[in-house]
Amino acid sequence: MQRKHSVLRNYPVVGHLRYLLEDIRPELQQYFIERNWDGRPYDRDTRSIIYERAKGIHGEQAFGTERDVEAIDYEYLVHSTVPATAPDDPPRVLIGGPDCTKPYSMSLLNVSAMSFGALSANALRALNKGAAMGGFAHDTGEGGLSPYHEEFGGDLVWEIGTGYFSVRTKDGDFDPEEFADKSSRDQVKCVSLKLSQGAKPGIGGVLPAAKVTKEIAKIREVPKGQKCVSPPTHRVFSTPTELIEFVARMRELSGGKPAGFKLCVGSRTDVLAICKAILEVGTAPDFIIVDGAEGGTGAAPLEFEDHVGMPLTQGLMTVHNALVGTGLRDRIKIGASGKISAGNDIVKRLIQGADYTNAARAMMMAVGCIQAQMCHTDKCPVGVATQNHRRARALDVGDKSQRVQRFQEATVAEAVQIMAAMGVTHPSQLDPTMLRRNVSSTANQSYAEVYEWLAPRQLLSEPPQSWADDWAIASADTFHSRRQETHR
Ligand SMILES: Cc1cc2nc3c(=O)[nH]c(=O)nc-3n(C[C@H](O)[C@H](O)[C@H](O)COP(=O)(O)O)c2cc1C
User: Fold this and answer.
1) Which residues line the pocket of ligand 1, CB cutoff 6 A?
2) Which intervals hold domain Glutamate synthase (predicted)?
3) Taking the domain 93-427, which CATH number applies?
């Protein structure tokens, strides 16, 4: 009957062992239940912070840092000797370039794309209800627009991927009429085209046949009980120019809503090719979401999770600098995702070039994920990442939606407080001198020194030597320029 602990709702007797051990001796709990903790993507401290914030506990920590602040690669944010006063309302960012007629005011932290199929209906309900309560955006993921995304009216970024789920013809092509119809719904605030995601760039998703229930089949518009594969490649474009034209078409079909795309960066030439295409076509996406190689997934081959794709820091700075260098940065907002779970993560990404951030796994933890890492087996013990109704019942939507709202609010508030400590009241006042990194055992440097930052339109006038080759090779007509160059 209790609603707070999903583990106990699914395992009412044995589940107490976890809490008992937690009470008696945390070390025992760690040994018996979480003994592989070190291998998990989020460490114990990070998870504790997410849980506490979600539960509304704003606990300060006793005793001081546990980080090795002398380590090479340790990074820190630069505080001011005269901190500012944090604004009462957290800053937001307006998404929508000159061709967008319905700009959207985006929060600094939003729910990243996770599909119905990967997540349970209850998890999506809780995320969307939390987004509605807290006034932030919820990305649908590529698995289609489901009733569970829409039930509580929270703002949606509607994502379509290579499968065009919810907007596909029988043959798997994009259906423009259906897209126009569904994207015109008021709750859909932005439309997004997924090119790739950090955990598995270059391959599509697979939903095993057993998980393609009648309901999923209906929402995705695919046959029931058959393996549901998103192909690796899009049918709607094959060149940078066609990509930009298609994103513009999405904006038009949606009635002028912000349209953009999400990618994990592969090479700098790809990004520059897209910039050239924007300049040639004469219209720009309203946003680009950069996902880092460190990003999560419901299911992907380990090799792809660990060895393919650019990490967020590099990917984000590549996209930001390419847009600055081509004079396009003012028209396009940049979102960032990849292990964002705390206020300092948000501020760091804003300094590296983002305008706003999205979190997937931290939001999963806010709805009760315990990092069992069983999403792909359909046996999630807490009802978050499963299509099994009995398991999903454990997730209480009322309680968990509050946790989502609290986690988002407290994390953004922390980011705003950190910025105030740095002497700034708005992200536009941040700059790369404000993030520093230990570069050796005796020296540290700011991001302004460690990395190269392009001046506005620099690539158009006089590309620096370090960018000149890539800029010359990049072509609006192909995503294969690097390969051709190497083979020549
Ligand atoms: C269970 C799960 C399902 C996901 N499904 C999608 C998806 O449908 N489309 C997408 O673009 N990204 C998807 N992602 C990737 C996330 O949106 C996000 O980009 C990535 O996990 C990085 O964020 P994180 O580190 O905060 O988890 C998924 C991630 C998870 C964990």
Assistant:
1) 112-115, 118, 141-143, 159, 194, 197-198, 262, 291, 295-298, 337-340, 359-362, 375, 385
2) 108-424
3) 3.20.20.70
